[in-house]
Amino acid sequence: MKTLEIIGFKRANLESASLKEIREEGSVPCVVYGPGIPEQIHFHSPAILFRPLIYTPEVHLVELNIEGTIIKAVLKDAQFHPVSEALLHVDFMAYTEDRQIKFEIPVKIVGNSPGLAKGGKLELKTRTLKVKGLAKNFPDFVEVDISNLDLGKSFKVGELKSDDFEILTSPNVSIVTIGIPRALRGKKGEE
Length: 191
Known about the structure:
Elements: E1 3-10, H1 17-24, E2 27-33, E3 41-46, H2 51-54, E4 61-66, E5 69-80, E6 87-94, E7 101-110, H3 114-117, E8 121-124, E9 128-133, E10 142-145, E11 154-156, E12 165-167, E13 174-179, H4 182-190
Parallel strand pairs: 1-4, 2-6, 7-10
Antiparallel strand pairs: 1-3, 2-3, 4-5, 5-6, 7-9, 8-13, 9-12, 11-13
């Protein structure tokens, strides 16, 4: 899995009045917590550094460089302004290489479905899977092969297998379905 570096600067003033000042300077207030560090650290980072982390369908591990201290972390939460959608706050969870963490990994559809060739519609039901494992074992994405899906058929989470991590998403959840368009439903009834 890819790793991104985010450079941060500790916040001396933790009062909420200082948050407006930080945001006006083009930075985002952040906090990092978790088993990988002894106590939570409040810091701020330039907003531009978050583009390849937040505004992408890919997921990344994060290497936080807070005034020279390197902390391995994952993005836990990002808060946005309700109107302008500007990034307001980011939470990171620190981790250690020897301890399992929960993470969401994107799904990538591969293969050619016979149902699509017949005019079916690809319906992606879930874009990410919740998983648990060691960070070093997480792939960039989970491949879902739709080569055997015909019209009206689904690929469920329970059909996926992994030795490197545990899939926490319910096995009954559909990842992708080949939908039957209305035009084909009428033809099917006439046959």
